[in-house]
Amino acid sequence: MLPDNEKIYWGWYVVAGSFFVMAINYGARYCFGIFLKPLAMEHDWSRSVISLAATINMLVYSIGSIFVGRMLDHVAPRWIITFGALLAACGFILTSFIHTPLSFYITYGLLVGLGASGLGVVVCSSSVGKWFIKKRGIAIGIATMGISFGTVALTPLAGYINQYLGWRAGLVALGIITCCIGVFISQLLMHKTQPEAHGLLPDGDKAAFPGPTTTIPAVTRIPTRVLFRDSRFWTIALSHGLIIMVIMSVFVHQVAYAMDNHIGSIAAATSLAVISMTGFFGQFFFGWLSDKVRDPKYAYFLGTFILLIGTILLWQAGSVSRLYLSAVVYGFGYGCLAPILPILAADRFGRQVLGSIYGLLTFFVGFGGSIGPILGGIIYDHFGSYQHLWEINIAVLAVICVVTLTLKKGKPFDAHL
Questions:
Q1: How far from chain centre, in Å, is Cα 230?
Q2: Which of 42, 69, 107, 405 has the most CB atoms in a 10 Å sphere around its CB?
């Protein structure tokens, strides 16, 4: 139990821990595009062969999210995060020794992907969501700002190491950073499950409870078949999955696209940092906005529309200035994605079942995201450019803007808990 004179509500420590865990997880994984061209040049592999590793990574991540989501409803997040950090770190370091596509798929695709599921938004955002109701949007928004912070910090670093020390040294550095920060932060800040277990109320409201013996809201398991009959689930899963397909195609191929347009490698890598820099503010803004509008789907629509404008600008980005302009707009819209999904899930399905439902949603989202990297590689290998990839992305986002507005409200599954 927390002491009575505790001045800072523990939920904010969970927000801080989630911020840094997501920073190292997504920051390290979004560096993948920096290593695409060096790998192709050293091993004479096609871009589709290399991109397949990112696709496998996303598939494994999405499958792992189902299990970590269900575990999170019963296990303290620190153990899930610690194991994930150790596994992902091993994967990054072992990837620096690869010489065949198969070894690449095992180390980066399987090991990093599985480890990342223990460090991802399912564990972190769901943990935050259990500590807040009234302030859920702003809390998750702040936590997911870590994704952009990590990308801003790690992509230029990885680009610098890649240029001056080689891609293998860059991967080792990412592995060491993932291990040290992931284990330390999880053990320090992520060892509590939910406020009721410690005599507290969500949002830091004054507890009427005497201590941890207070009745804790039950965790209800929602049968998968019930979810599959719910149109809200499919609207969210398919829409978000396709958006992540677009996002992953950009994060994996934008650096190579920029270099194909005679933009230097560090400047090209920095364009990813620009996306994350404006995404940093977008994550805060859309988390805040979701608390202010009567339905968070309207914040989701606005973010997707801005993302669409950024993609159109990227389609015509043939210079450094145009690339950075597209990155600024694209990044702000991208900022809506990480906070909005758990907010929508909690709003539609309920706080007590957030871990398991978010995990299942992330499986379908990750499956959609896995298409992006390999689709970009196939299109480039076939047409010799990425123009058709950007055109597909524009069409997908335009359709999702319309579909998002059809999302029904419905009744939470834990309404009677």
A1: 24
A2: 69
**Are 334 and 218 spatial neighbours (Cβ–Cβ below 8 Å)?**
no
Q: What is the pLDDT of residues 175-229, one digit of tens each?
A: 999 999 999 999 999 988 778 777 778 877 764 444 444 444 444 556 667 677 7
What confidence score (pLDDT) does residue 60 get?
93
> Tokens in use for 119?
């460090």
- Confirm whether 392 is domain-assigned: yes
Tokens for 410, please give them: 């419905």
Residue 381, domain member (yes or no): yes
301: containing domain: 10-198+220-404
149 CB-near residues (< 8 Å, 6+ apart): 19, 23, 27, 276, 280
d(CA 357, CA 227): 9
Under 8 Å CB-to-CB from 125, ≥6 apart: which residues?
18, 140, 143, 144, 338, 339, 341, 342, 358
Count of domains for the chain: 1
Phi, psi values for residue 385, rounded to 5°: -160, 175
Q: What is the DSSP string of 64-95?
A: HHHHHHHHHTTS-HHHHHHHHHHHHHHHHHHH
Give the model's pLDDT for residue 276.
Answer: 81
Q: How far apart are CA 390 and CA 249, in angstroms?
A: 9
User: Within a domain: residue 210?
Assistant: no
In this prediction the pTM is: 0.74
Q: What is the pLDDT of residues 315-325, one digit of tens each?
A: 888 788 889 99
Calpha distance 106→404 (Å, rounded): 36
**Within a domain: residue 411?**
no
148: domain CATH number is 1.20.1250.20
